[in-house]
Write a structure and sequence with these properties.
Elements (H helix, E strand, L loop, with lengths): L1 E6 L4 H17 L1 E9 L15 H29 L7 E7 L2 H12 L3 E6 L6 H4 L1 H10 L4 E5 L10 E4 L7 H14 L3 E7 L4 H13 L5 E7 L4 H11 L4 E5 L3 H9 L13 E5 L9
Parallel strand pairs: 1-2, 1-4, 2-3, 4-5, 6-7, 6-9, 7-8, 9-10
Antiparallel strand pairs: 5-10
Helix pairs in contact: 3-5
């Protein structure tokens, strides 16, 4: 059975992503590991002039966090029932430490295939799009990470767009994406924004056509319109995209994807789930 890790802070954006992750787990016949993390407060040994109270403060804080965890897990069970998803295997974890460190440990110990996280991308600013936790997980783990905006509703995966530089290092990620496409019975559109005509790109499209089924692969070469963001926006506004796939190696695109200015942000990402795959020969196993 495949395994999906879902870090949550029980926020509105996270709860929306939980429903998305549950639907995805059902489609993939996967189990969902829900982890909530907390950090102990930093207190001086002479706190309030009474150092003997420090252990009690820590204990009370942890107890409070755990009670909050239990309350929210009950709510998540109810959400699963409301969406007829109670048959999806759920494992709840309550862990001390950072989100990134706990995610890395759970991925290794449990053999996690995919991480799903909820995000708030409404304002196009890094602290309000991903925050340090989601971006940290993307940078710190070796499995694919799926970010789900707070306005994204799961309606199945029927259209997949893969932004690619048409380099050989993208082939491992494309194989992984094609496995997803085969699972859902959909086509993968490989998109590239052309700044100038490039014969290497044409050669790579020919290579990929030979490697993969023509029926499941399509190439979208877009002429640059002001900027890469603007070009992709224009395309996605005119075509349905349920899953946007990006290779982590493409750092310039990721920077623009997650740090776009208010005037030039990628508007499509307010309701499009984004899958970030790892670079090189091992993009992770979705």
């Amino acid at each position: 059975m495949r395994k999906i890790l879902f870090p949550t802070d029980f926020s509105h954006a996270a709860n929306n992503a939980f429903v998305y992750a549950m639907h995805l787990a059902k489609e993939m016949d996967a189990g969902l590991y829900v982890v909530n993390t907390y950090m102990q407060p930093v207190l001086s040994a002479t706190h309030a002039g009474q150092p003997e109270l420090v252990p009690e403060v820590y204990e009370n804080y942890e107890l409070h966090q755990f009670e909050n965890f239990k309350k929210h897990t009950t709510e998540l069970h109810k959400m699963a029932a409301d969406y007829n998803l109670s048959n999806v295997p759920l494992t709840f974890l309550f862990e001390e430490g950072t989100v990134v460190a706990n995610a890395q440990r759970i991925i290794e110990n449990e053999g996690i295939h995919l991480v799903v996280m909820g995000t708030n991308r409404a304002d196009g600013v890094i602290d309000k799009i991903f925050g340090s936790n989601t971006l940290g997980v993307i940078r710190g783990v070796k499995v694919p990470v799926l970010s789900v905006p707070k306005d994204a509703n799961y309606g199945g995966i029927k259209e997949i767009l893969f932004t690619t530089l048409f380099r050989e290092k993208d082939e491992a990620a494309l194989r992984q994406i094609m496995e997803i496409a085969d699972k859902f019975g959909v086509k993968v559109k490989c998109a590239h924004v052309l700044k100038e005509r490039n014969t290497d790109i044409i050669a790579m499209t020919d290579r990929w056509q030979r490697m993969f089924s023509h029926d499941n692969l399509e190439f979208v070469l877009l002429d640059l319109d002001q900027s890469i963001e603007q070009t992709l926006n224009k395309y996605i506004e005119q075509h349905r995209v349920d899953l946007l796939c990006v290779v982590k190696r493409n750092k310039s695109l990721l920077e623009r994807l997650f740090k776009s200015s208010m005037s030039n942000r990628l508007r499509m990402h307010t309701n499009t789930a984004t899958l970030v795959l790892q670079e090189g020969d091992d993009p992770g196993a979705f």
